[in-house]
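Observation: inputs received (chain + iron/sulfur cluster).
Thought: call the complex predictor directly.
Action: predict_structure
Action Input:
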Amino acid sequence: MSGIYIHIPFCKSKCSYCDFYSIANSKKLTDFMPALLKEIEVRKECLTDKNIETIYFGGGTPSQLYIQDIEIILNQIYTHFQIKADAEISFEANPDDLNINYLRALKNLGVNRLSIGLQSLNDDMLRFLRRRHTADDAISSVENADKCGFKNISADLIYGIPRLSEKMWQETLHKTLKLPIQHLSAYHLEIEENTLMYRQLKENKFQVIDEELSFTQYCDLLEISSTYNINQYEISNFSKLGYQSKHNSAYWSRIEYLGFGPSAHSYYQNKRAFNVSDLDLYCKQIKKSQPHYETETLSVLDHINEAIMLSLRTVDGININDFEKDFGSTQTEKLKSSLKTINQSNYKLENAYVRLTNKGMFVSDSIIKKLFI
Ligand code: SF4
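Observation:
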């Protein structure tokens, strides 16, 4: 099995925290579409296994696409790959784009999983994040999606936002989890360079949230989501039983996927490939049949470190016996001795599984770096 990702690089405007590649100029859609369709065709041979189990429209804002264009993209994918009859077809959408007609048309095209960018259900927070919707818009979008027959809906939330109190966060969590959703992705805010929020921080317009409050919000997330039977399966991902994202789970299991569109990444034939993060250059190179991506061949050490990183981000953790089977006893001994340098409150070793504790998950990046071989 393999997966397909399509990066739609358009947004109506830029949210203050966002460093994903996107532009606020939908006129470029006329250049983008032929380039994307050609990329889908010319890279079809890259995958070892052309049986596709997941298709994921991400961005940017896929819901900025016209329905006709989504249909053309899907047709191109169906023409060049074998798509399983029960493939998961996910589509990221912003609440302000999801009117009933658009939702019905998406459903008719075969989209069977929606990932809706709520981010918060507090209007002050939404303004601070420069989102284009209100809390009421966000709630209506999920309710309408459910009414239109979507029974696999994911909501995205952000916590750790400056001035987000514990009470505000708990309210957002309860309101979100009462909606007809089956999956939740909740991310701690990262203030990245080259964002409006980073510049505002440098100008002392706000202060970052206190570390202790951040951790409290993470613990609230774990506790409150579980009371709605939406349980954590990866650091930032939670679902009802049977509703884990197949597409993301495939990434974490290092299954091959092809990413189309500017800035999309791919993994195939032991390589990672990175498309240029520049729409004009992407279109120009594809038109001239010149390379529009760079590749990096993975070494054994890259595989080991990816396995450590991706496994520890999941609640399943690392199975030491499987690790030894895959990478040998020398690497396993190295991993075990690195584990001894980690504070014991951050991980548990049970029945051959190494798993991060809640505290460990919260600071997972620094722990994982210490375990790299
Ligand atoms: S957060 Fe999403 S909607 Fe906002 S600018 Fe980034 S990609 Fe666009």
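Thought: report the result.
Final Answer: The CA atoms of residues 10 and 23 lie 5 Å apart. The pocket of iron/sulfur cluster is lined by residues 11, 14-15, 18, 20, 22, 59-61, 94, 117 (CB under 6 Å).
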